[in-house]
Specification:
It is a single chain. Helices cover 40% and strands 21% of the residues. The chain contains eleven helices and 13 strands. The strands form three sheets. Strands 5-4-6-3-1-13 form a six-stranded mixed sheet, sandwiched between helices. A four-stranded antiparallel sheet has the order 10-11-9-12. A three-stranded antiparallel sheet has the order 2-7-8, with helices on both faces. It is globular, with a radius of gyration of 21 Å. The N and C termini lie close together (10 Å). Bound molecules: alpha-D-galactopyranose (GLA). The site of alpha-D-galactopyranose has 11 residues, from helix 5.
């Protein structure tokens, strides 16, 4: 069945562009969102807890199957119409062979085939509204939308968490970025109006209702416009340091260090100053996720603010992955009356989140914009985040 009239506006546009490019309407149109992480940073590759929610910004893909072993990829962001179509023979897909945007969708096809799924080709047209390099998981959105489309078209029957694992493999092995499982699971599994409390050890999930508007609250995302990249060395160094900490403490992962035993664990690490800082962040951050879940479950939403702010201090001082722009957002927001604020995502740039009373949104936004102007930083992009739907078929 081809994509039908009456589809959501974005889906219709993507389907029409697909038809112009490939000469026939697509078999379907899928969407997968970006995310912000409320709390639980750099815990996912330590088998710990995270709590992201989906953004309304999403990657949309129009897709049809092919039978000749060829993957054709086109992005709305690339000029050149037909000339902009990348044509990749499936048998030639190999990790590390591609440094452009096509590595994300191609990596997913590679991972599916590696896992034994008989994908025989596809025509794809992609369009995304997730800002890139902003710490909002634009790459996970691209990966998950392709995985879901092929899962449906090839009737693979894989659940969301398995698609997320395959997408993570595409990113780790094919693209070469040593990231955890949070972003892909968020994109695949989040639900509208909820934050996802995820245990990254076994991928068990709890959907926690998160309706800030009903309580007169807002969550602002402030994109500092400082671009970050996880295939660069710093993310990998933090990850290696955490693994060293787990090895020194004789546990499988830092998740296994109980919060109550943190001081004793740190004492055992002796003069390994850097490892001490990394371990302290991860163990306290897992605890912060549990505290936020507890507060949300008991309806004490305003009380999560200070926990978010503690998380920022830990990422800045112990994990050392903040930057002047992120610190300025947090300091300015708190000085102007925010309930809590912290950087979100991998760090070294990207975005911060600010929890505030609805009535203070304009004052806070103005304060942050003025502080950036005074510091001579690029103007930030500020928007309100409302938990949106996870990946789904649109047409
Ligand atoms: C990036 C990675 C995630 C996670 C976060 C930090 O977004 O892709 O796996 O590690 O950084 O929490």
């Amino acid at each position: 069945m081809g994509a039908q009239q009456g589809a959501p506006a974005g889906a219709q546009q993507v389907a029409e562009r697909f038809a112009e490019l490939y000469g026939a309407r697509p078999e379907g149109v899928w969407a997968a969102p970006g995310r912000v992480n409320l709390i639980g940073e750099h815990t996912d590759y330590n088998d710990g807890f995270v709590m992201p929610f989906a953004l309304p910004h999403q990657a949309t893909a129009a897709v049809s199957r092919r039978t000749d072993g060829v993957l054709r990829l086109h992005s709305a962001d690339i000029e050149g119409g037909l000339a902009g179509i990348a044509e990749l023979p499936l048998d030639a897909l190999a990790p590390g062979s591609d440094e452009s945007w096509t590595a994300y969708p191609a990596g997913v096809v590679w991972a599916l085939r590696e896992a034994g799924h008989a994908i025989t080709g596809a025509d794809v047209h992609l369009s995304s509204t997730v800002p890139t390099g902003a710490g909002l998981s634009s790459s996970a959105a691209l990966e998950v939308v392709i995985a879901l489309a092929l899962n449906d078209l090839y009737a693979l029957g894989l659940p969301g968490w398995k698609l997320a694992r395959l997408c993570q493999r595409a990113e780790n092995v094919y693209v070469g970025a040593p990231t955890g499982i949070m972003d892909q699971t968020a994109s695949a599994c989040c639900r509208q109006g909820h934050a996802l409390f995820l245990d990254t050890r076994d991928l068990s999930q709890h959907q926690i209702p998160f309706d800030l508007a009903a309580e007169g609250l807002r969550l602002l995302v402030v994109d500092t416009r400082v671009k970050h990249a996880h295939s660069g060395g710093e993310y990998g160094k933090r990850r290696a340091g955490c693994e060293k900490g787990a090895a020194l403490l004789g546990v499988d992962a830092l998740r296994d260090v109980p919060y109550a035993g943190l001081d004793a664990a740190l004492a055992r690490l002796g003069d390994e100053e850097e490892v001490v800082r990394l371990v302290r962040h991860v163990v306290t951050e897992d605890h912060r996720v549990e505290r936020v879940v507890g507060l949300l479950r008991s309806g004490e939403t305003r009380a999560i603010g200070p926990v978010l702010t503690e998380g920022h201090a830990s990422l800045r001082d112990d994990f050392r992955i903040s930057c002047p722009e992120l610190d300025l957002v947090v300091d300015t927001a708190l000085a102007a009356g925010a309930l809590g604020a912290r950087m979100t995502g991998g760090g070294f740039g990207g975005s911060a989140i600010v929890l505030t009373e609805a009535t203070d949104v304009d004052t806070l936004t103005k304060a942050i914009e003025e502080a950036f102007a005074a510091a001579d930083f690029t103007p930030p992009r500020v928007f309100e985040a409302v938990p949106a739907a996870g990946a789904r078929r649109l047409v």
